[in-house]
Amino acid sequence: MKRVGIYCFSATGNTLRVCKLIKSELEALGAQVDMVSVEEGYSSQKSPLDYDAFAVAYPVHGFNAPANVVEYVKNFPEGNKGYYIIKSSGEPAPANRDSSHQIVGILRKKGYEMMDEFHYVMPYNMIFRHSQDMVDMMWKRAQDAAPFDAKEIFEGGKGEIKQKLRHKFISRLFTIEHGGMRLIGRGFKVDMEKCIKCGKCVKNCPMHNISFDGEKFTFGKSCLGCVRCSFNCPVNAIKISVLEGWKVNGAYKIGNGMEYDESKVCKYCNKSYKRYFTEEGGNSIEKQR
Ligand SMILES: Cc1cc2nc3c(=O)[nH]c(=O)nc-3n(C[C@H](O)[C@H](O)[C@H](O)COP(=O)(O)O)c2cc1C
Fold first, then answer.
1. Which ligand 1 atom lies nearest to the CA of residue 93?
2. Beta strands at 217-219 and 210-212: parallel, antiparallel or unpaired
3. To test the ligand 1 pocket, which listed residue (121, 124, 182) has its Cβ within 8 A of the most ligand atoms?
4. Between vectors from CA 286 to CA 282 and to CA 287, what angle results, nearest 5°?
5. How far away, in angstroms, is 106 Cα from ligand 1 center?
6. Of 36, 147, 159, 281, which residue is least crowded by CB atoms under 10 Å?
7. Strand spans (E) along 21-104
8. Is the distance from the beta carbon of residue 88 to the nearest atom of ligand 1 less than 6 Å?
9. Would you say 100 and 71 are in contact if contact means Cβ atoms under 8 Å apart?
10. Domain segments of the chain as ranges
11. SS3 83
12. What is the pLDDT of residue 280?
């Protein structure tokens, strides 16, 4: 039986949902799939060398992979095998295309080859809240794409990845996001008038960066800007510093797929979303399958 490892980081659930879709498609093909949580830290017992195929999954942050995922893959042993990238982002902007460049560079030096990248557009957890129609169309698109992507992983297929110079430039420029978020995260604050002291933010921060001494919250130096804290705060009490105007609070209802309806596509990035929804076959915005 083919063993597949999916190393996944998901701050607010989108990437995890996509990975679970792909996992169930892989299982339908007869694979045994291990979901490995990046935030639990690397363990040699979950080495990529133990799998017949593996994938690294993450949400796009500032046209890049989050810092914790980049750090995580540095722990992989040297190996000589192919792997896949699964990523989710809030918009299908071409600037997201080369977001894996750090991971790919690190793993290339260790001997691994990136075989293909699967890009899923999922509801934004930052900038603005997508409408329920958009959410439902995205989910339908993800459900349609997952069987193609799972089959490719299962069969060890290789995709043709085309990166344009300007997209490479944008991703590299935005690697400052990692340091920027550590700085901005220090400025996160809790409105104590609203706070109900449920402790969710402290308990769930993937970087253990939030502490509470009974009176006040402290945000440390390792924030990823992943917004799990503010997104899931039940009383919307967390202010995310200069990003406050872009804050999205509260989980989406994901589960009902909806057929594509052009009139329901949001105005923002309208053309890119339309292209994403209407492309034939799998899900990649980089290429048609
Ligand atoms: C700090 C931050 C930066 C983001 N940057 C981008 C971006 O550059 N491009 C994009 O399309 N979406 C961006 N997003 C949106 C997320 O990639 C998107 O909502 C993703 O599906 C979240 O996945 P998760 O729920 O697994 O964390 C960003 C979100 C955050 C919190």
1. 11
2. antiparallel
3. 124
4. 55
5. 22
6. 281
7. 32-37, 53-59, 82-89
8. yes
9. no
10. 3-172+255-278, 177-246
11. strand
12. 59
Asked whether the beta carbons of 37 and 29 are under 8 A apart, the reply is: no
- CA–CA separation, 73 vs 234, rounded Å? 33
CA of 213 to the centre of ligand 1 (A): 30
In this predicted model, what pLDDT tens digit does every residue of 165-197 receive, in sequence order?
888 888 888 888 899 999 999 999 999 999 999
> Helices 165-173 and 101-109, interaxial angle, to 10°?
90
Asked if residue 282 has pLDDT above 80, the reply is no
Question: How many whole angstroms from 62 Cα to the centroid of ligand 1?
Answer: 7
Give the class (CATH, top level) of 177-246: alpha beta
Q: What pLDDT, in 10s, does the model give residues 143-165?
A: 999 999 999 999 999 998 777 88
Q: Which secondary-structure segment (H or E) carries 144?
A: helix 132-155
Quick: pLDDT tens for 235-250: 999 999 999 999 999 9
The CB of 11 under 6 Å from ligand 1? The reply is yes
Could you confirm whether domain 3-172+255-278 is CATH 3.20.20.140? Answer: no
CB 70 within 8 A of CB 106: yes
Please give the distance, rounded to the nearest whole angstrom, from the Cα atom of residue 260 to the centre of ligand 1.
22
Q: Is 265 in the pocket of ligand 1 (CB under 6 A)?
A: no
Ligand 1 geometric centre to CA of 125 (Å): 6
| The predicted structure's pLDDT at residue 141 | 94
3-state SS class at 68: helix
